[in-house]
Amino acid sequence: MKKFNNEQGAALVITLFIVTILLLLVLSLFYQVTNTTKQITATEENMGAIQIAEMGIVYYEQVIEAEKQHLEQVLNENGEDALLDELNRINNSLKEKVNFNDSKNRFFKLSIDTNSPRIETSDSQSKIIIKFNSIGKVSSREKMVDSEIVINIEGQLESGAIK
């Protein structure tokens, strides 16, 4: 076997060059991985905030659906003004945010339009239209989703009551 006796230091320079290149590659990959992780976390928080806001919409729809018969009864017995008062009472009871017991500070809050609810009448039926927003929050991300509920009431409104 042939022995090389080169004492000019070329092997050391090549080794240092390879180590430097590998170090640059590792650092650039590390930078890319940390940026991707931050981007994925932000995307997950945005999606979570939207989903929680949509959960608030479903929650409000279920509350109104559960109260539908009562609202129709109030409208039949007491008229349109009493119905609006009853809807405002329900809306005021839902203004508090709904927290989730976890470490991500997640909640949704309903924001009902001040011009809402309104009652529209046609020849065949009446509608109660409620416009509202649901604000969902996860960690520091907050998203708002607009929605509208239309409650169809059978019959026809005449002078404040269904006939």
UniProtKB/TrEMBL annotation:
<feature type="transmembrane region" description="Helical">
    <location>
        <begin position="12"/>
        <end position="31"/>
    </location>
</feature>
<keyword id="KW-1133">Transmembrane helix</keyword>
<protein>
    <recommendedName>
        <fullName>Type 4 fimbrial biogenesis protein PilX N-terminal domain-containing protein</fullName>
    </recommendedName>
</protein>
<keyword id="KW-0472">Membrane</keyword>
<keyword id="KW-0812">Transmembrane</keyword>
